Amino acid sequence: MVVEGETAMSERKGYRVAVVGATGAVGQQMIHTLESRDFPVSELLLLSSSRSAGTKVQYKGKELTVQELSQKALKV
What we know:
By secondary structure, the chain is α/β, with parallel strands linked by helices.
């Protein structure tokens, strides 16, 4: 079943995932687990406090930038 405004999983080939606290111990473990288990991620949003925003994190050979957690960051 496709909910209005959403794309079927088979069409987008993965989930949109946000990791809050991406620079902390639990966030880093979550990112590692997503990668090591080859979880189907179509988009990965890394969020943290303003203090850690801008930090670079490696995921599947790519360098991603951590963003500050805000309502604006969550609106996609």
